[in-house]
Amino acid sequence: MTAAGSRELILSRIRSAVAGAGEVEITRAYRTSPDPARATGLVELLAERVADYRAVVHVVDEGEAAATIAAALARRSATRLVVPEGLPSEWVPGEPVTDDPPLSAAELDGVDGVVTGCAVAIAETGTIVLDAGPGQGRRALTLVPDYHLCVVRAGQIVAGVPEAVGRLDPSRPLTWISGPSATSDIELNRVEGVHGPRTLEVVVVR
Predict the structure, then answer these.
(1) CATH number belonging to domain 40-205
(2) Where does the source fall among the domains of life (predicted)?
């Protein structure tokens, strides 16, 4: 029997088994943050969790953001940086590399890094989510370069995953980032930079 035939056989048996069964109400009582205790200290919690993933984290005031970004890039001697359209001009370093027309994978691999904003950040998991919106660009921009500097505004931080999902459009291309790209082999030898940037630097703007 073919794979398609086996699949249809299994589905037909399931349909027969549940035929006539009543509707079952599925309760989705996901924990959100009406509790004020969960809604406070999100900036500090996010910074702590992101650092746990071996990312570099800076927590700064609005007026310090541009200087912090410039200093971070200077420490890496990063000058050829991809900056997606829509990133605030004060965060844009020198003369950025634009993605119009779209850069090839080889061209993206040849730059010093990418600077982006984000759609939302999750404090409890230390996860940053990009949805290809303004200041974020297409997914390849943050997956191919070896260095990613991401700016997160305090208003984009939520406590948990349910709140984040509630803010996101599932039809958009979502990239969920929990620290630099890393994996390990069967002997638990950690290798970084396999599926994305080897270095993640996050500037959290209060």
Answers:
(1) 3.40.50.10420
(2) Bacteria
